[in-house]
Amino acid sequence: MTLDNNSLVVVCGADDNYAIPLTVTLYSAVANLEKGCTLYLYIIDGGITEQSKKRIQRVLNVEHINLHLKWVSASSFTSLSHIKTPDWVSVATYLRLLIPDILPDHFDKAIYLDSDLLVKGNLKDLWNQEMGQHALLACSDLVIPYVSCNLGIMNYKELGLAPNAPYFNAGVLVMNLPRWREEQISQKIISYFSEYPEYVRMGDQEGLNAILANDWGKLNPKWNVIAHILSYDNWIDSPFKQEIRPIKDDLLHKPYIIHFAGGEKPWKIGCEHPAQLEWISYLKASRWFQPIESLVWFTKWYIRYTPWRLKVLIRTLIFNLGLGKFWESMRTYVHQS
Question: Percent helix, strand and coil across the chain, each rounded to 5?
Fold first, then answer.
């Protein structure tokens, strides 16, 4: 089946713990799609409750696009059950490996989205990126640019990979489905986990990079701007620092997709990402909550958020006006000495 020019296929997955973040990801994606677009959306159900499913379906009931939504039960796929995961990684994060088996054979391409994203660009533009013969398209990881980095692939030498082989972040992918099926790429990745369990630290992202090293195409980094970019001014050990600095402002202020990777989760008090309130605004606009429920939830959230945010502002002000100047003067003194 060849999709028409107004169609695209998107796949995502989550368990019920990430039902709300998944909703914001999908709502922001749908809200920024062009009018008249046809979206084939597949949600891999890693344990989402019926109540959450009804809420998600209500959120996605918009008039400007033609939506075809299908829920896929992850429990019917036993190939992931034996994978040993790090303590902090949920098996739900491995759901993207099921995509080639889940989608109909007549689909030859799919966009995969993590559930902790804020989509600000038009996904149709991502869909239209030239795939070539690559197994997938992705963005270079802003934290782990090469397989030899500290959090890269520990056994890259054993796998025959060059130390400067590029490493991608798996939160946003465009997948070449015929190649995945013909070459059984998912099965190869799952086998990698079984063969090298002692090396796996970054979940399925590590397996994807180990198997697909040098076989992926680079997307504009604006399609997956991870929260770690906020640390680049003082991240001394980052080998990617010099490449990011010239485009940092553009990535921060004009991203196509914001990825709240790591600990910077916008629904949590304590998140210092500048897009936190924008994420909260999308959650409110999504109508996940009923009117009274919404009033109660957001009131409680802001009651906790406001004093914390005030504390951060005071801390920043004190540093900028006091300790910051003191630190700079000391650096100047040492340099002159």
Answer: 45, 15, 40
How far are the Cα atoms of 18, 276, 289 from residue 267, in angstroms, in the given order? 11, 8, 14
Length of the chain: 337
The span from the first CA to the last CA of the chain, in angstroms, equals 72
- In this prediction the pTM is 0.89
Q: What are the C-alpha distances in Å from 64 to residues 31, 60, 252, 328?
A: 9, 11, 28, 54
Tokens encoding 301? 């959230």
Q: What is the pLDDT of residues 42-66, one digit of tens each?
A: 999 989 999 999 999 999 999 999 9
How many other β-carbons are positioned within 10 Å of the β-carbon of residue 248? Answer: 17
How do beta strands 136-140 and 117-119 pair? Answer: unpaired
What DSSP assignment string belongs to 198-259?
TT--STHHHHHHHHHTT-EEEPPGGGSEEGGGGGTTT-TT-TTHHHHGGGHHHHHHS-SEEE
Q: Which residue has the tokens 């980095």?
A: 149
CA 32 to chain centre: 17
Contacts of 68 (CB under 8 A, 6+ apart): 38, 39, 40, 41
Residues of the chain with pLDDT under 70: 1-2, 75-93, 232-242, 319-337
Structural domain spans, the chain:
7-286, 298-337
Tell me how crowded residue 299 is: count the other CB atoms within 10 A of its CB. 9
Residue reference for tokens 């990617």: 240
Q: Among all chains, which residue has been given the structure tokens 């600990």?
A: 263
Residue type, 73: S
Domain 7-286 indexed as CATH 3.90.550.10: yes
Name the one residue in this structure whose structure tokens are 């304590």.
Answer: 270
Q: Which of 83, 79, 5, 84 is nearest to 44 (CA)?
A: 79
